[in-house]
Amino acid sequence: MKKFFLLGLIAPFLLSFQGEIEDICNEKEAKNKALTQLLDYSYSSSKTSNFIFINNEQVREIELNLFEGEDYRLVFNNEYLPENVEVRVYDKPKEDNRRKMLLTSKEEPSQAMFVYEPSWRHRNIYIDYIVPPSSTDKIMKGCAVFVLGYKLNFIN
C-alpha cells in the first residue's frame, strides 16, 4: 500500500518533465558523419552515449579492448550535445591511481568531431565523458557517438 501511495505522489512530478526535456540527439546522422572520418580504416563498432544535462557534473566511463597487430582509429562526434562535454582517454580505469591521460578534448572544446589513433601497446583504453552541469533551467538531452575503425598491421 505504501508503494502505491509513493508512486501516486511521484508519478505526476515525473510526468510534468516530459514536455520540458529538449532532445537534440540525432544518433543516425551523428554515426554517419563519424563513419566518413574512418578513411581507410574498416568499421569495427560504435557506441552512442545519451546524456541528460542536470544541475551537477557527471562522469561516464567506457572500456575498449584493443588487440595487438591492429591499428585503430576512434572518431568522436559530439555535435549533438547541447553543451561542451570533455572527452578524456586513459590507459587505466578511474579506480587505478596510476592511470595516465592519453587524450583530452579540452584543448579544442569547440571542435564537435575529432579523431584519436591509440597505440596498440595499450590493450585496454578507457573513455571518460565529463558532462558539465546544465547552464540553463531547461532539462536538455543529447548524445555523443564514437566509431571505432581498425586496420590489420601484419607483424613478421
In a few lines, what is going on in this structure?
The chain is an alpha+beta fold. The protein has helices at 2-16, 27-35, and strands at 21-23, 42-53, 58-65, 70-77, 86-90, 101-104, 113-116, 124-131, 139-152.
Defining traits:
Jelly Rolls, alpha+beta, 2 helices, 4-stranded antiparallel beta sheet, single chain, disordered N terminus, 15% helix, 9 strands, 5-stranded mixed beta sheet, 156 residues
Give the number of DSSP strands: 9
Fraction of residues in helix? 10-25%
Distance between the first and last residues' Cα: 70 Å
**Under the CATH scheme, which architecture would be assigned?**
Sandwich
3D shape: globular
- As a percent range, the share of strand residues is 35-45%
Tell me the radius of gyration.
Answer: 19 Å
Name the poorly predicted regions.
3-7, 9-19
Total helical elements: 2
The secondary structure category is alpha+beta
Highest CATH level, the class: Mainly Beta
Largest beta-sheet characterization: 5 strands, mixed
Average predicted local confidence, pLDDT: 84
CATH topology: Jelly Rolls
**What series of H and E elements makes up the topology?**
HEHEEEEEEEE
What does this 3D model show about the protein?
By secondary structure, this protein is α+β, with helices and mostly antiparallel strands. Helix content is 15%, strand content 42%. It has a single domain, classed as Jelly Rolls, CATH 2.60.120. The chain has helices spanning 2-16, 27-35, and strands at residues 21-23, 42-53, 58-65, 70-77, 86-90, 101-104, 113-116, 124-131, 139-152. The strands form two sheets. Strands 1, 2, 4, 7 and 9 form a five-stranded mixed sheet that branches. A four-stranded antiparallel sheet has the order 3-8-5-6, with no helix packed on it. The longest helix is centred in the N-terminal third of the chain and has 15 residues, at 2-16.
